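From the methods appendix. Each design record in this collection lists the tokenized structure first, followed by the designed amino acid sequence. Records were kept in a plain field format so they could be parsed without special tools. The example shown here is representative of the layout used throughout.

RECORD:
FOLD TOKENS (214 positions):
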């Protein structure tokens, strides 16, 4: 197997992971809010009566495409593989156009690609990401069923390529910064002290003399 063929095959699990992650993020947000209306801001491009069905169709499509890419990647049902890969490529091409439309005509809306993590208005990176994923999905067409890499240095090379692609997608994802900001957020001491219930947490604040007091 040539290196180019291996790179093309690697796009299948990459695109599938992104699709299933987007579906999971939207589903978690909908479950917390107990409403599908909060899931995707991008459906604001539709008339109000179509936003709910459009959101549900979007979530179902992400789940179907992501699962379909994985199911058809092996020996079973591999004859449907190119259909799912072409469909995924078309999905991300439409997503690219939708994000461009949001930036141009609805700059106050987030794309909602990954639920509440995508609440900010889309920038250049948000527009480039679906275009890169569309190219990745289309590049995987006609590569057949996925074959495991041969043992040895080739397997390490495959893993390295996959990590590099994941880093590229992460670099084009503003949501990564949002996740890191939330992980590093520390609730102010005043809010913790006046909270009526909840787990006990140690809180520190600066003392007048420059020291630290509990």
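DESIGN:
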């Amino acid at each position: 197997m040539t290196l180019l063929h291996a790179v093309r095959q690697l796009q299948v699990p990459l695109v599938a992971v992104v699709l299933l992650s987007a579906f999971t993020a939207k589903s978690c947000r909908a479950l917390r809010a107990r409403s599908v209306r909060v899931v995707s801001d991008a459906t604001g491009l539709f008339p109000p009566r179509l936003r709910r069905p459009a959101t549900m169709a979007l979530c179902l499509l992400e789940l179907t495409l992501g699962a379909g890419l994985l199911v058809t990647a092996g020996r079973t049902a591999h004859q449907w593989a190119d259909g799912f890969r072409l469909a995924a490529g078309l999905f991300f091409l439409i997503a690219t156009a939708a994000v461009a439309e949001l930036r141009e005509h609805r700059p106050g809306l987030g794309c909602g690609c990954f639920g509440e993590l995508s609440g900010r208005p889309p920038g250049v990176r948000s527009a480039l990401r679906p275009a890169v994923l569309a190219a990745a999905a289309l590049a995987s067409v006609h590569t057949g069923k996925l074959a495991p890499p041969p043992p040895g240095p080739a397997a390490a090379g495959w893993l390295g390529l996959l990590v590099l692609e994941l880093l590229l997608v992460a670099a084009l994802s503003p949501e990564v910064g949002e996740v890191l900001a939330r992980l590093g957020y520390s609730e102010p001491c005043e809010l913790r002290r006046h909270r009526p219930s909840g787990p006990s947490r140690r809180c520190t604040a600066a003392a007048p003399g420059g020291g630290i007091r509990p």
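APPENDIX NOTE: The two ends are 62 Å apart (CA to CA).
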